[in-house]
Amino acid sequence: MQTSSDRHAYPAHWEADVVLRDGGTARVRPITSDDAERLVSFYEQVSDESKYYRFFAPYPRLSAKDVHRFTHHDFVDRVGLAATIGGEFIATVRYDRIGAGGRPASGADADEAEVAFLVQDAHQGRGVASALLEHIAAVARERGIRRFAAEVLPANTKMIKVFTDAGYTQKRSFEDGVVRLEFDLEPTDRSLAVQYAREQRAEARSVQRLLAPGAVAVIGTGRTPGGVGRSILDNIRDAGFTGRLYAVNGALPEGQKELDGVPAFRSVRDIDGPVDLAVVAVPAERVPEVVAACGEHDVQGLVVVSAGYAESGPEGKERQRALVRQARSYGMRIIGPNSFGVINTSPEVRLNASLAPDMPRPGRIGLFAQSGAIGVALLSRLHRRGGGVTGVTGVSTFVSSGNRADVSGNDVLQYWYEDADTDVTLMYLESIGNPRKFTRLARRTAAAKPLVVVQGARHGAGPRGHAVRATQLPHATVSALLRQAGVIRVDTITDLVDAGLLLARQPLPAGPRVAILGNSESLGLLTYDACLAEGLRPHPPQDLSTAASAADFHAALSRALADDTSDAVVVTAIPAVGEGSVGDAALAEALRSAAAAAPTKPVLVVHVELGGLAEALSAATSTAPQPGAASGPVPAGGGTTPAGGTAADAGTGAPGGEPLAPAIPPAPVPPPEGAHLIPAYPAAERAVRALAQAVAYGQWRREAADPGKVPEYEDIDERGAAALIKGLLSRGQGLTLTTDATCELLASYGIHVHRALPASTPDAAAEAARTLGYPVALKATAPHLRHRADLGGVRLDLADEEQLRRAYGELTELFGGPEELRPVVQRMAPRGVDTVVRAVIDPAAGAVLSFGLAGAASQLLGDMAHRLIPVTDRDATSLVRSIRTAPLLFGWRGSAPVDTPALEELMLRVSRLVHDHPEVVAVTLEPVVVAPHGVSVLGASVRLAPPPARDDHGPRTLPTY
After folding, report:
1. Residue 96 CB partners (closer than 8 Å, separation 6+)
2. Residue 930 β-bridge partners
3. Which of 646, 641, 640 is nearest to 667 (CA)?
4. In which element (H, E) is residue 773 found?
């Protein structure tokens, strides 16, 4: 696109789609010589006032020289970026590298540039300039520019605010009637916080526009009942959607104005008035023309239920990419394709733009599913559980992302984070497109409300329709990182619903101590055993006997809740037989009233075939919609199904295409203010598993309130390490460092590796030992013998030259000549526990620090713990204690405890090295001997690679697949 005289090729990696403040999208790309006409057209639509602010004088039109200058760049010293919608410019930004005195300059010695913006008046206030500033700053840093300067007229307060609000370190001056701003481009904590806050607001707003539209058009509605489009139209209408609804079908006869009472049109272009959301249900080959029509009508977003995309193979994958490109070019976001639809139960919206035939009950649970079949099963399960056993708890919003070509779980998390109608978030994920961002968003969301996740496709490739960044980490490691971020990880959708209902209805437990009471000794013992298996601390069960009355249950629960030695209570109940046995309604009221008197502790019920108790618990405090609210029909002869009473509910998976349960009629009694529903479970194991998840999450919430800090160490030489890395990388694109270079780099961060001298002959070994001093160790470093003392490739505590020469002869006799063994001599370290510390930058998850004991514990049993970098002091402390073999570090069976504070400091230094220098892509310290006093690093390796042009700290951008 550029002429041959340009110094650099077109930088395609600078192209990006961004979400703007109002939820719309724009494309950011470099300006090229082909953009002359677009630039002139753009400038003609800018007001005279904006032109004056840009050029400090009346400037009605651009000259030919101006157009050439603003469209011809070398992409190094002169760069221009444009924000476009529909292929047309809506804003531009450019920088010119300057030297002393503000004159044009080139070369690495000139690290300052002058920057200037121009935004079309119609698009001012949408956050376009802020997004462009992030991208032009990233480009400048890539080209060696460290500082921007901008001159702004004092009256141009909007542009001054763009610069001052960005969060960079700034200097401000005023002379000759102009405000001069200078700011460093190095990201700061404040600039990153500003960037993430803007990202959250924009992405949340983009999802809100899809979930709370004022007008919806269903495109592809059949003229006769049945079919996908017609079903969705009927579902929207029957749910009582509060906005305007339109049916669109290109085959409608001339003159037909309605379809079952819904205004009907042959094209979305014919609709007189705005359309916020279009639900697209036409064959895949017709979708492009529909998207074009929607874009021309300024539709804000699309839900594409059409199939035939990436899930169908390579051709469909390319069709999906084209769909996303086309929609974003018009500023629209997409849910889907291959989506099941979206639901919003808010009384102000009442949107059921999905294939679910009945509107779920309104509630406080947000539900996200990548699979339509699993989404149906989850909605169905919440219907049955909500009306049969655990009280009426419904859904606030539901999103089925389908192939998640655009809107993903990350976007929905951004929305739920600030959604006042959602208290608990449940997610079924078959893939995570950007795990690094997901963990960042999950940590922030989990600090405010519970986030429960079940992952499908854990042991194989994800669905063909999902684009996933390649990861080198095993699933167990990714799961550990998610738990570190506060995610409640469960294995099945049954566990997902069980945990979600508890968290939606009860307070978090303050600890793991559990009181157990009930009318069955056997069920109490089962619950006790389940608690022990889940790591909880149960009290001995209290058996009230099968003759217990409702008053007995009330008194026992009241005592347990008042007991300071318990943090939660599990009530077990079995059917009572005989005259005077407790009734379901009476028992439910007894439990509810006792729990209401102590609302700070969670209460759970384990019941056995007590459908009546389930319904009574539901009625005790109801959050069902009141009379007059939209709901589905009640089936003939239909009551409610007791939870656990069907095979589907007892299983660990979800049946494909499971029908949605009919809606349950509204309860007449509104819930008391602040009342907690009591969740009930058909099996002790399920109740205790949910409780254990809540206990762990509560502990994480308390710890997250004080996450610790990343310590500063005065002896770290960050600049020296950077210079060394730069020099090493100049020799190649990626390399594993030599032993000397490894030791030098680690030493700059206060990590000292014990010297190991090569010993190619017995005489060389003796000379090395004299240099280091006895006692010494003789080690074979060949790959098949390295770190394998069990194979005999290591000889320790050699006190003199005679022992050393004897050991050398034994090694060469057993394993071959020195050229095969690669023997080295190393001074003996103090005795202790052998451990391994590793850090790696994973392309998907980011920088990860891992720790375990060296040898079989980590290699055979996989006993490793992991934390995201940068690691805080609290992270390091918990990391050491997270492995199963941690007791060996703390005096197991009478051994001397080792110096874990020194070990923690070593890990913090490794974390700092990797965090400060993204070129360090892998560090392995093995073995690290942790003695009662101090640590000794006996082996180390470091790998370097050029850093990525953009990472999670770079400018906001939508993923491209």
Report:
1. 77, 78, 104, 113, 114
2. 833, 935
3. 640
4. none
Task: Give pLDDT, residue 330.
Answer: 94
The H or E element containing residue 95 is strand 88-98
Q: Provide the CB-side half-sphere exposure for 290 (13 A, CA).
A: 26
Distance (Å) of CA 637 to CA 377, 619, 633: 23, 20, 12
**CA angle 99–104–106, rounded 5-degree value:** 70
How far, rounded to the nearest angstrom, does the alpha carbon of residue 378 sit from its chain's CA centroid? 21
Q: Are 218 and 279 in contact (CB under 8 A)?
A: yes
What does residue 851 show for φ and ψ, rounded to 5 degrees? -145, 145
CA 464, 465, 467 angle in degrees (round to 5)?
Answer: 90
DSSP tally for the chain: helices H, then strands E: 28, 39
Helix (H) or strand (E) holding 260: none
Query: Token match 């001997």: residue?
Result: 929
pLDDT category at 462 given cuts 50, 70, 90 is low
Average pLDDT, the chain: 86
* Closest alpha carbon to 291 in 250, 252, 263, 332: 332
Q: Which two tokens stand for residue 839?
A: 């850090």
Copy the structure tokens of residue 280: 């697209």
pLDDT band at 417 (very low <50, low <70, confident <90, very high): very high
Helices (H), 179-313: 189-211, 228-238, 287-296
pLDDT in tens, 820-876: 888 999 999 999 999 999 999 877 677 899 999 988 777 778 889 999 889 999 999
Question: What gap in Å lies between CA 342 and CA 298, rounded to an integer?
Answer: 21
Strand partners, 753: 937
Name the token pair of 413.
């998390």
Tokens 């384990």 -> residue: 606
- Both tokens of 116, joined, read 């200037």
Query: Measured between alpha carbons, how far apart are the two ends of the chain, in Å?
Result: 23
Angle separating helix axes 684-704 and 435-446, nearest 10 degrees:
90
Structure tokens of 67?
Answer: 């157009």
- The DSSP secondary-structure symbol of 854 reads T
Query: How are strands ordered across the β-sheet holding 78-85?
Result: 16-19, 25-30, 78-85, 88-98, 112-119, 147-152, 178-184, 170-175
Question: Which bin fits 125, alpha (ψ -120 to 50), beta or left (φ > 0)?
Answer: left
Hey, what amino acid is at 41? S
Residue 868 main-chain phi, psi, to 5 deg: -75, 140
Q: Give the orientation angle of helix 475-484 with respect to helix 435-446, to 10 degrees.
A: 30
- Lateral strand order in the sheet of 451-455: 351-354, 341-344, 395-400, 362-369, 424-429, 451-455, 488-490
CA distance 290 to 97: 45
Cα separations in angstroms, 583 against 117, 577, 617: 74, 10, 12
Beta bridge pairs of residue 115: 95
pLDDT of residue 483: 87
Backbone torsion region of residue 775, taken as left when φ is above 0, otherwise alpha when ψ lies between -120 and 50, otherwise beta: beta
| Of the candidates 302, 271, 276, 300, the residue with the CA atom closest to the CA atom of residue 288 | 302
Which residues, including other chains, have CB under 8 Å from residue 264's CB and lie 6 or more apart?
221, 246, 247, 248, 249, 252, 256, 257, 258
Which residues, 6 or more positions from 567, have their beta carbon under 8 angstroms from its beta carbon? 509, 510, 511, 512, 513, 514, 601, 695
Tokens 């694109």 correspond to 733
Residues 6+ apart with CB under 8 A from 697: 446, 450, 486, 488, 503, 508
Question: What is the average pLDDT across 321-349?
Answer: 95
State the Cα–Cα distance between residues 414 and 408, nearest whole angstrom.
10
